[in-house]
Amino acid sequence: MPTTRADLFPQAIRRTLAQRAGADPDARAVAGATIHTWQQMVAQLEPVIGARGVDAILRRALHLTSSSRPWLAFTSAQGDTAALLVHLEKHLADCAPDVAAEAGSALLVTFVKLLTALVGDSLTERLLAPVWVSALPASEQETKS
Predict the structure, then answer these.
(1) 68 near 138, Cβ under 8 Å?
(2) Which of 76, 57, 77, 53 is nearest to 65 (CA)?
(3) How many domains does the chain have?
(4) Is 69 in contact with 106 (CB distance < 8 Å)?
(5) Looking at the domain assignment, is residue 17 inside a domain?
(6) Alpha-carbon gap, residue 141 to 55, rounded angstroms
(7) How would residue 108 be classed by pLDDT, with cut points 50, 70 and 90?
(8) Residue 2 within a domain
(9) Tens digit of each residue's pLDDT (9 = 90 or more) over 57-71
(10) Residue 66: which domain range?
(11) 25 in any annotated domain
Protein backbone atom coordinates (compact mmCIF):
# COMPACT_ATOMS: atom_id res chain seq x y z
CA MET A 1 0.00 0.00 0.00
CA PRO A 2 1.59 3.33 -1.04
CA THR A 3 2.27 6.02 1.54
CA THR A 4 0.11 9.12 1.15
CA ARG A 5 0.88 12.63 2.31
CA ALA A 6 -1.63 12.20 5.14
CA ASP A 7 0.35 9.18 6.39
CA LEU A 8 3.37 11.44 6.85
CA PHE A 9 1.63 13.95 9.14
CA PRO A 10 1.73 11.74 12.28
CA GLN A 11 5.46 11.17 11.75
CA ALA A 12 6.08 14.89 11.31
CA ILE A 13 4.07 15.69 14.44
CA ARG A 14 5.85 13.11 16.61
CA ARG A 15 9.26 14.20 15.31
CA THR A 16 8.45 17.88 15.90
CA LEU A 17 7.18 17.33 19.43
CA ALA A 18 10.15 15.14 20.32
CA GLN A 19 12.67 17.69 19.07
CA ARG A 20 10.93 20.63 20.74
CA ALA A 21 10.56 18.80 24.07
CA GLY A 22 14.30 18.06 24.25
CA ALA A 23 16.52 15.03 24.74
CA ASP A 24 15.15 13.74 28.05
CA PRO A 25 11.92 15.67 28.53
CA ASP A 26 9.70 15.78 31.55
CA ALA A 27 5.94 16.14 31.12
CA ARG A 28 6.15 19.94 31.47
CA ALA A 29 8.56 20.09 28.50
CA VAL A 30 6.26 17.85 26.46
CA ALA A 31 3.26 20.05 27.34
CA GLY A 32 5.21 23.15 26.36
CA ALA A 33 6.26 21.58 23.05
CA THR A 34 2.65 20.64 22.31
CA ILE A 35 1.35 24.15 23.04
CA HIS A 36 4.20 25.78 21.10
CA THR A 37 3.51 23.56 18.09
CA TRP A 38 -0.19 24.33 18.39
CA GLN A 39 0.50 28.08 18.41
CA GLN A 40 2.57 27.73 15.25
CA MET A 41 -0.24 25.79 13.59
CA VAL A 42 -2.70 28.53 14.54
CA ALA A 43 -0.43 31.19 13.03
CA GLN A 44 -0.41 29.29 9.75
CA LEU A 45 -4.12 28.46 9.67
CA GLU A 46 -5.95 31.53 10.99
CA PRO A 47 -5.31 33.67 7.89
CA VAL A 48 -6.91 30.95 5.77
CA ILE A 49 -9.77 29.49 7.85
CA GLY A 50 -10.11 32.11 10.56
CA ALA A 51 -9.85 31.91 14.32
CA ARG A 52 -13.34 30.44 14.65
CA GLY A 53 -12.56 27.74 12.09
CA VAL A 54 -9.34 26.77 13.87
CA ASP A 55 -11.13 26.80 17.22
CA ALA A 56 -13.96 24.62 15.93
CA ILE A 57 -11.55 22.01 14.58
CA LEU A 58 -9.51 22.09 17.80
CA ARG A 59 -12.58 21.54 19.94
CA ARG A 60 -13.69 18.64 17.74
CA ALA A 61 -10.19 17.13 17.84
CA LEU A 62 -10.09 17.48 21.63
CA HIS A 63 -13.52 15.86 21.91
CA LEU A 64 -12.42 12.92 19.75
CA THR A 65 -9.07 12.58 21.53
CA SER A 66 -10.67 12.71 24.97
CA SER A 67 -12.86 9.70 24.17
CA SER A 68 -9.81 7.52 24.86
CA ARG A 69 -8.24 10.00 27.31
CA PRO A 70 -11.11 11.29 29.48
CA TRP A 71 -8.74 13.41 31.55
CA LEU A 72 -8.43 15.72 28.51
CA ALA A 73 -12.17 16.43 28.31
CA PHE A 74 -13.07 20.11 28.09
CA THR A 75 -16.52 21.59 27.66
CA SER A 76 -17.32 24.91 26.02
CA ALA A 77 -18.88 25.96 29.33
CA GLN A 78 -15.37 25.86 30.81
CA GLY A 79 -14.26 28.86 28.77
CA ASP A 80 -12.71 30.17 25.61
CA THR A 81 -9.77 28.87 23.61
CA ALA A 82 -7.21 30.46 25.95
CA ALA A 83 -8.78 28.57 28.87
CA LEU A 84 -8.79 25.40 26.77
CA LEU A 85 -5.05 25.72 26.12
CA VAL A 86 -4.33 26.33 29.81
CA HIS A 87 -6.42 23.24 30.62
CA LEU A 88 -4.58 21.19 28.02
CA GLU A 89 -1.11 22.30 29.11
CA LYS A 90 -1.88 21.67 32.79
CA HIS A 91 -3.27 18.20 32.16
CA LEU A 92 -0.38 17.21 29.90
CA ALA A 93 2.15 18.51 32.45
CA ASP A 94 0.49 16.42 35.19
CA CYS A 95 1.07 13.14 33.31
CA ALA A 96 4.01 10.86 32.92
CA PRO A 97 6.19 12.16 30.07
CA ASP A 98 5.36 9.26 27.74
CA VAL A 99 1.61 9.66 28.38
CA ALA A 100 1.85 13.41 27.77
CA ALA A 101 3.79 12.85 24.53
CA GLU A 102 1.29 10.30 23.27
CA ALA A 103 -1.73 12.45 24.18
CA GLY A 104 -0.26 15.66 22.72
CA SER A 105 0.66 13.83 19.54
CA ALA A 106 -2.77 12.18 19.32
CA LEU A 107 -4.53 15.55 19.67
CA LEU A 108 -2.44 17.22 16.96
CA VAL A 109 -2.74 14.21 14.64
CA THR A 110 -6.52 14.21 15.10
CA PHE A 111 -6.62 17.95 14.39
CA VAL A 112 -4.59 17.51 11.20
CA LYS A 113 -6.78 14.61 10.06
CA LEU A 114 -9.89 16.75 10.52
CA LEU A 115 -8.27 19.65 8.68
CA THR A 116 -7.22 17.32 5.86
CA ALA A 117 -10.78 16.04 5.53
CA LEU A 118 -11.92 19.65 5.05
CA VAL A 119 -9.24 21.12 2.80
CA GLY A 120 -7.34 18.12 1.41
CA ASP A 121 -3.83 16.71 1.74
CA SER A 122 -2.11 19.17 -0.54
CA LEU A 123 -3.40 22.36 1.08
CA THR A 124 -2.87 20.95 4.59
CA GLU A 125 0.69 20.09 3.69
CA ARG A 126 1.38 23.54 2.23
CA LEU A 127 -0.19 25.35 5.18
CA LEU A 128 1.52 23.35 7.91
CA ALA A 129 4.91 22.59 6.31
CA PRO A 130 6.58 25.54 8.11
CA VAL A 131 5.48 24.11 11.48
CA TRP A 132 7.18 20.72 11.29
CA VAL A 133 10.85 20.18 11.98
CA SER A 134 12.67 18.59 9.10
CA ALA A 135 13.51 14.91 9.05
CA LEU A 136 17.20 15.68 8.54
CA PRO A 137 19.37 18.16 10.42
CA ALA A 138 19.93 21.36 8.42
CA SER A 139 23.57 20.45 7.68
CA GLU A 140 22.49 17.10 6.15
CA GLN A 141 19.71 18.78 4.14
CA GLU A 142 22.20 21.21 2.61
CA THR A 143 24.45 18.37 1.45
CA LYS A 144 21.47 16.50 -0.01
CA SER A 145 20.35 19.56 -2.05
Answers:
(1) no
(2) 57
(3) 1
(4) yes
(5) yes
(6) 34
(7) very high
(8) no
(9) 999 999 999 999 988
(10) 10-132
(11) yes
